[in-house]
């Protein structure tokens, strides 16, 4: 019994030692786990602190950027305000300029109308008994007496068109020129011929159209600078004794230049010249003289050759007689009619009984070319050399007696 008690005592002692060791081991493990947990937390904390510092830095940058943006926004607002003020100022100046421009345009319109009235008045005066310039007419007897009947002894010179002699009338000495009888003189112009409807045949009219077209083709294709006549009209188309027509009066003709802005040679002027009703509407509006300006005048003359009418509203007259419209440049409506209908319309168009004897196809071609050439817009007019000349040449070979 005593030995069993000792064994129990020894077991209890060993059990206590084991419990203490386990407790120490458990304590050690707990401390170790706690240390590891602390390290993990410390590491997380350090990372959090680092992230916070980083976030703080980014926040500072954002604050700085925001401050810069606010500063820029203020500058933009200020600039916008200045731009608005500038725009208001520009709008006011534009309005003032528009008022000045409108006033200027009105003054220019009035001035142009007055100038046109004055120019027409001058022309009327010049054609009415030589206008304000009063010429003195002398009889052949007076002229012979002025040279003392000794023309051969006081000849001052001889030229290609005639001779110049010394003459005295009263107390005034002057030079008198006599035209050579052998020289082909210019005796009429187309304006005179248009009035003489009875003897002005279709064949002659076609020949004149061909001559004018040929002269214009030559002028418009000269090198290096084409030439625009600028004042083509019947009174500037003259005839010699052999009934050959000549183009005259190149007083306002211009050499045309090529520019980078357009492929069409042109001459720019602030004051378009020329004769009303023959002057290109586009030239009158823009001041840009081109070969097509002559084409327009040629078209009006072609219509005069067909109708014998004056130039005033001649296009409207022709369209009305042909029962078609102003925008029907190629006479499509007219050509769709029957031959009999065309003939009746042409008879209404032509006032001279002799002229209605022309073949319908030739009359239609002349009329069509005249309307085509005299189109209001330059882009709608044909080229004389490539589109018109061949048509006129084919008509020029027509024999009205055949």
TrEMBL record:
The keyword Kinase applies. Its EC number is 2.3.2.27. Residues 76-96 are annotated as: Disordered. Keywords: ATP-binding, Kinase, Nucleotide-binding, Serine/threonine-protein kinase, Transferase, Ubl conjugation pathway. One of its GO terms (molecular function) is protein serine/threonine kinase activity. It is an enzyme of class 2 (transferase). It catalyses: S-ubiquitinyl-[E2 ubiquitin-conjugating enzyme]-L-cysteine + [acceptor protein]-L-lysine = [E2 ubiquitin-conjugating enzyme]-L-cysteine + N(6)-ubiquitinyl-[acceptor protein]-L-lysine. InterPro entries: Kinase-like_dom_sf, Prot_kinase_dom, Protein_kinase_ATP_BS, Ser/Thr_kinase_AS, U-box_ubiquitin_ligases. The keyword ATP-binding applies. It comes from the Eukaryota. Residues 78-89 have a biased composition (Polar residues). Belongs to the protein kinase superfamily. This is RING-type E3 ubiquitin transferase. The lineage of its organism: Eukaryota, Viridiplantae, Streptophyta, Embryophyta, Tracheophyta.
């Amino acid at each position: 019994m005593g030995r069993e008690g000792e064994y129990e005592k020894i077991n209890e002692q060993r059990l206590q030692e084991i419990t203490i060791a386990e407790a120490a081991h458990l304590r050690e493990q707990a401390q170790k786990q706690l240390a590891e947990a602390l390290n993990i937390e410390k590491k997380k904390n350090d990372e959090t602190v680092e992230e916070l510092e980083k976030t703080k830095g980014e926040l500072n940058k954002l604050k700085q950027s925001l401050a810069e943006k606010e500063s820029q926004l203020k500058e933009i607002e200020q600039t916008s305000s200045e731009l608005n003020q500038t725009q208001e100022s520009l709008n006011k100046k534009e309005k003032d300029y528009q008022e000045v421009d409108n006033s200027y345009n009105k003054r220019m319109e009035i001035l142009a109308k007055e100038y046109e009235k004055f120019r027409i008045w001058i022309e009327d005066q010049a054609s009415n008994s030589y206008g304000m310039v009063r010429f003195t007419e002398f009889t052949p007897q007076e002229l012979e007496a002025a040279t003392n009947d000794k023309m051969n002894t006081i000849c001052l010179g001889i030229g290609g068109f005639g001779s110049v002699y010394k003459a005295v009338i009263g107390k005034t000495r002057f030079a008198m020129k006599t035209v050579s009888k052998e020289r082909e003189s210019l005796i009429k112009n187309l304006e005179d011929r248009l009035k003489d409807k009875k003897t002005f045949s279709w064949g002659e009219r076609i020949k004149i159209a061909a001559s004018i077209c040929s002269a214009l083709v030559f002028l418009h294709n000269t090198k290096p600078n084409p030439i625009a006549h600028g004042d083509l009209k019947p009174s500037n188309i003259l005839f010699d004794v052999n009934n050959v027509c000549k183009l005259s009066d190149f007083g306002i003709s211009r050499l045309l230049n090529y520019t980078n802005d357009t492929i069409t040679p042109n001459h720019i002027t602030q004051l378009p010249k020329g004769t009303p009703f023959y002057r290109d509407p586009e030239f009158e509006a823009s001041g840009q003289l081109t070969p097509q300006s002559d084409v327009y005048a040629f078209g009006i003359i072609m219509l005069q050759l067909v109708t014998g009418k004056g130039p005033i509203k001649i296009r409207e007259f022709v369209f009305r007689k042909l029962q078609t419209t102003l925008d029907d440049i190629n006479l499509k409506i007219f050509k769709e009619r029957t031959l009999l209908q065309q003939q009746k319309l042409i008879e209404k168009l032509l006032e001279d009984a002799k002229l209605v004897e022309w073949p319908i196809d030739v009359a239609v071609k002349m009329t069509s070319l005249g309307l085509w050439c005299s189109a209001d817009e330059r882009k709608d007019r044909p080229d004389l050399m490539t589109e018109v000349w061949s048509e006129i040449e084919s008509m020029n070979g027509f024999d009205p007696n055949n």
